[in-house]
Automatic annotation (TrEMBL):
It comes from the Bacteria. Residues 148-168 are annotated as: Disordered. It comes from Rhodohalobacter barkolensis. This is DUF4402 domain-containing protein.
Length: 205
């Protein structure tokens, strides 16, 4: 009995096996609201999505995706501003993504999410710092706040100069990286495609 696992970004309107839903949002605290609007982007990195390597058989137990093999998202924004990252994920992968199977142990697989970030300016897992994820049987949640580019122990600077009509944000943009990985625990389940959803929201603070 073989289970097939694949991860396709929902923005592609494709069939999910392990799904990733990405939302990027922009909001501002009062400190920056008077200075106008800055854009922020959440970008998918690489051709490969989060995949639990198979074949994966019924009753095969723990299957792990390590940090080094994680799914990577890039946050592109103003380097001296902080961002809030909020993460939610379903605590189980369900056969065909059918929510009616949530309480059926033969058609659901426990999923433990892990996440990390780096704001060193490079996509390098060796400098990644973990994001605390609270995993429960029904839901995984986590959040983090950090500057897009590390201040390297320096305190925050003064509020940014208000953007004008000649302001070119690309001159002050930098990239931070998010990493998603984790494990599944495969019990006595029926064969098929199992999927869940991870939602990531990023906004300025």
């Amino acid at each position: 009995m073989i289970l097939i696992f694949k991860h396709i970004k929902t923005a592609f309107i494709a069939v999910l096996l392990i799904g990733l839903s990405v939302n990027s949002a922009l909001s501002q605290d009062i400190e920056f609201g008077q200075y106008g609007t800055y854009t922020i982007e959440l970008e998918d990195i690489g051709l490969e999505d989060l995949v639990f390597q198979g074949p994966i058989n019924s009753n095969s137990g723990i299957h792990q995706v390590e940090l080094i093999d994680s799914k990577v998202l890039a946050i592109i924004g103003v380097k001296y501003l902080d961002v809030d990252v909020d993460i939610t994920a379903e605590g189980k992968l369900l056969l065909d993504g059918n929510p009616t199977y949530d309480s059926d142990p033969q058609r659901s697989i426990p999923f433990t999410l892990e996440a990390a970030f780096t704001n060193s300016g490079e996509n390098n897992v060796s400098s990644a710092r973990p994001i605390g994820i609270a995993n429960t049987p029904s839901l995984s949640t986590g959040n983090a706040r950090f500057p897009i580019l590390s201040r390297r122990q320096r305190p925050p600077g003064p509020p940014p100069t208000p953007p004008t009509g000649d302001f070119d944000q690309s001159l002050v943009n930098e990239t931070a990286y998010l990493y998603f990985y984790g494990q599944i625990d495969v019990g006595n389940v029926v064969a098929g495609s199992y999927r869940g959803t991870i939602t990531v929201t990023v906004e300025y603070r």
